[in-house]
Amino acid sequence: MPLNDIIMTPPTLLDRSLNAVWHPCTQMKAHLTLPLVPIARGEGPWLYDTAGNRYLDAISSWWVNLFGHANERINGAIRDQLEKIEHVMLAGFTHEPVVALSERLSARTESAYGEPLGHAFYASDGASATEIALKMSLHYWRNTAQPQKTRFMSLSGGYHGETIGALAVTDVPLFRDAYSPLLINHHLLPSPVPAPGQDAEEAASKAADLLAQHLAEHHSQTAAFILEPQVQCANQMAMYHPLYLRRARALCDQYGVHLIADEIAVGFGRTGRFFATEGFARPDFICLSRGLSGGYLPLSVVLTRDEIYQAFYDDATARGFLHSHSYTGNPLACRAALATLDIFDDDQVIEANRQRAHWLLAASQPLAEHEAVKNFRHCGMIFAFDVATQDTHFPKKFFAQALKHALLLRPIGNTVYFMPPYVLDEASCHWLGQQTLHALNATLSKS
User: Fold this and answer.
1) Is 340 helix (H, G, I), strand (E, B) or coil?
2) Which of 87, 149, 376, 406 is an S-S bond match for 223, by CB 3.0 to 4.6 Å?
3) H-type alpha helices, 26-156
4) What is the phi/psi pair of residue 172, to 5°?
5) Phi then psi for 42, rounded to 5 degrees?
6) Could you tell me the strand order of the sheet in which 415-418 lies?
7) How far from 311 is each of 138, 260, 261, 322, 342, CA to CA, in Å?
8) Whole-angstrom Cα distance, residue 73 to residue 77?
9) Please, are residues 189 and 257 in contact by the beta-carbon 8 Å criterion?
């Protein structure tokens, strides 16, 4: 047969992706046996692949999507902004969306804490926000004649991102071990997460006592304490009592140390309040990302108090905060974030989520009672349980079974969790619980 008569089959989307894209947080060789899922579109809580199969996005596409895919109100805001200005540098320029978003976030913090964190510094992702907060804190102490305050405290099991500064205060070996030669060692403190069978408030109190001991000895060299309020998401959704937040705030005040709230994953109502620290501790810095734009566009922000801002306000350029990102304060992302805040206000989302959490709790009861399930827990709109199995391949097997049952669920180790968008009705909550139970039983039967 002549060569020109041979019909060449064009490569599939999966082939093209494997050949050209280095996927995040992935051992690429795993996709030889666990194929990528080629997504064509989304609608509400559903993702649709190129074959027309649909999957309930029960983890909000890695915790970012708040109000469903292809949300009409957020779509409309972005379209409107697209006809005006798509991007302009924020050094020496400004624009309405970034100003309006900063004002509204400031007002949110004033409502939550009684005083505003009224100065917003923007970046594109959570790790960048962590870097900004760490650098701002250290630079503040330098500008206020305390340059020896260069050390940071963080919690065991904590995760704050994978850039070098953020990774230095992260305690997840999978992420940091390979890069340890690049990292500065900071102070790692015991987590307030209770041990199995331990009272949560007792665990928080004991951990706070250890924090007090550490600060009494090391406060003069310590710039800030960074933590994830209430839930350490990457640490298998480990949850702790908010008493720890109250004690941490009081101790940081006592010893002159900044408190950085990493709300990148747990902000925007995930723990049941708009801010996870709301009602418990007023931070000196809040890091926000993921849900900030409703899950639409890369955007992060660090909010801080006027006292910190004023320490940089000077004639000398070197005293300014010399940090930048090319797409800082992108107008399209800011409009998406403003539309997201509109939905929170117009739909009374925090209140509505209390009912949604009740539905999810009821739907999860058969899972909580399953003989292989341990430590079923929830905080606001985050639900998690651990599966007692010796199968080291459980996460991959469960993920595959969940897809077969029309669910996007990506376990962290042996921990299965729900962190869904805020658009589920009672029927879809029940369906999520039922399908998860089927996927769990199917996984265990094949282990």
Assistant:
1) helix
2) 149
3) 60-63, 72-82, 96-113, 126-143
4) -125, 105
5) -135, 155
6) 373-379, 382-387, 415-418
7) 12, 17, 20, 13, 33
8) 6
9) no
